[in-house]
Amino acid sequence: MSEKKKKIVIQPYQGRKLLSREEAEDEWRSLRDAIDQIYQKKSSQLSFEILYRSAYNLVLDKHGELLYSGVKDSLTGRFVAIGEQVAKTPDAQLLETLSGKWSEQKVILSTVKDILMYMDRTYATPRKVKTTYEMGLEVFLQAVIHHAKVRDRLRTLLLAAIKEERQGQLVDRPLLKTILNMLVEVGVGSTVVYEADFEAAFLHETRVFYRLESLEFLSYNTCDAYL
Question: The pTM is what?
Fold first, then answer.
């Protein structure tokens, strides 16, 4: 008598339960706390795989708007606080302080961007809204660079440094380069910010500088020497 074969029963796939609105809000709060730890440089105990999965589930379960708006609010609060710090910085340290904050926040923002990669790809891009990194640049621009007590001072200090260099004084060129590159980068593919915040005034100052140089030269030399 042949042995009776054991019947194999395939259990139906039990899909993950969709997050309710309340559960999604709890999930976002946990994710927000983790992002805060990243900004506080206390991320050594965080699992970036778990954080990515958390953001992934929120978007997958149709809570993309909750996540997107929450991230924007979180970045805004963070950068507003930084803007207030920079605004209180004396002129002598403003460029250096701003450069340091900019470099630091770019690194942190890149980390946050990696966690929210799925949101950027499947929520932000199809809706033609800014990705996490672009959003961060925009908020940094408005809250820090365009702070009422920073914007005009920044332009004045940049022009003053360039004037000093033209007069033969030593200036921190790498620092100036970092600040000018920042003005380009926050434009997110456009030079509008750079042009409005610096280039227009720079070109005007350049024309004035060379006109005065020409007049001074002519006052001490003949027309033949000028030509």
Answer: 0.84
